[in-house]
Amino acid sequence: MTEGQSRCTHERCVRVPHEASSNGRCIFHARAEDKNKKEFDEALRGYVSLEEVREREKAYDFRGFIFPWDIDFKKDLGINTFADGDFCHATFEGNASFDDATFIGIASFGGMKCQGTLSFHGAKFEAEADFRDSIFEGKSIFSQVNFEQIGWFSKVVFGEVSFAESTFRSIMFADAIFKGKASLRDITCETANFDRAIFEDEVDFLGTTFNDEALFRDAVFAKFTVFSYVKFGFTEFYGTVFSEEVNFSFATFKERTYFTDVRFKYADFAKARFLGNATISSKSIEESISFEEASIENITLSSLNLKGKAQINFTEARLRNTTIKCEDVEDHIKQEIDKDYREAQEIYLLLKNNFHSVGRYDDESWAFKKEKDMERKSYCHARPLRWLGSMFWNLLYGYGERPFRIFGWCAFLLLFSSFVYWFSKGVFHVIGADLVLVEDYWNNLYFSVVTFTTLGYGDFRPVGTIKILASIEALLGIFLIALFIFAFARKTGGR
Ligand SMILES: [Zn+2]
Fold first, then answer.
1. Distance from the CA of 88 to the center of ligand 1, in angstroms?
2. What is the distance between the alpha carbons of residues 8 and 343, in angstroms, rounded to a whole number?
3. pTM of the predicted model, to two decimals?
4. Domain count of the chain?
5. How far does residue 308's CA lie from ligand 1's centre (Å)?
6. Which among 26, 29, 72, 266 counts the fewest CB atoms within 10 Å?
7. In a domain, 266, yes or no
8. First to last CA, the chain
9. Is 398 a member of any domain?
10. Under a CB-based contact definition with an 8 Å cutoff, are residues 288 and 307 in contact?
């Protein structure tokens, strides 16, 4: 046997192979089933009390160690402070506790694996903490942890996890997978990156503060997601997918905010406040989006792509200078779908004023028309007379928004009257002192036009009861022409 073969086969390890190890590993690197509890625990205690480890100020090297049963570093080994703790590719087959530990140097946990519960409750990382590519099969607890530098969790696979009440300077969760419930409540951090992260279960960000920026590009939230009371700085949701309900109620978006090509099912922005420049454009909204009592002034809300019967709710929203297009919300106003016409009327009034504030006059005219439609529908049962009145103005000229409808009425009146004159034989030609019946239709039509426009040349004259119709036609003629001029000028002139 040569000297080389008498060493542990794990990389760079210089320890002697463990007797029971079938693959030539030392007692630390040997497979769990090759270990004996008493021997392993003794060896571990022997290692941490080594003079050379103490001299290097607690620079522990647990790289690739396989911990076969539960371990609590403080209780079992008396370690509370780690300088350059190296646990790369270590395996914990039981639970592992680092509660209240302090990591002075870089904490390397990259590629580690934990099958039991992993707990860092109350720990403090003074330098970077690196957990990249780790797999946490059990529950992991990072609550009340203080990450003074960057916390790297890229590509980590989490089971159930809690980061509640932790503070970070910066967290990286890019490409992480959260298989269990994730609690990210009351976190305080400067920057956070969740790009392409996948949340397979419920996730809760309640009360978290992202001071500088938070990125969620192409992230997927498969279950109920809570962002209530979250304070956002610069925020980017790009291509993000919310497969179930997402709740942003009471959230504050302080800086520039992008919701671009996001897919929503139920999105609730009730009482949310957008203080910076914001753009919300969605690839699809399957069921509903609510801005109830939300402040959405000066933001862009387009294109929304509400699907089929999806609803949008603007109840008491603060709309102003909000870029919305009528085609985005048409047929999706919640109150109208619910046949709550009185409330729907308020919503259209809100939209109308908003369209005016952004200079979208065609959309303003649409909203005004809808407002009147809702008013009419709300009268339908309770106040039939007002309903009739409202219906009349709608049919006549679309509440002023359809002036050319008046032309139709003019044509109808002219033709109708001309036929009555013709059939009733009540129009006579004045020749000297004689009256000769006008028998051909065209002259009756001519008489109708002259009467309608109140030109009254006097060459033809109505006789008998037909005078009444001629008078009415003349009055209606003046009224319709005046009404058309008024509506046309109002619609095309300055506002
Ligand atoms: Zn070894």
1. 14
2. 77
3. 0.80
4. 2
5. 63
6. 72
7. yes
8. 99
9. no
10. no
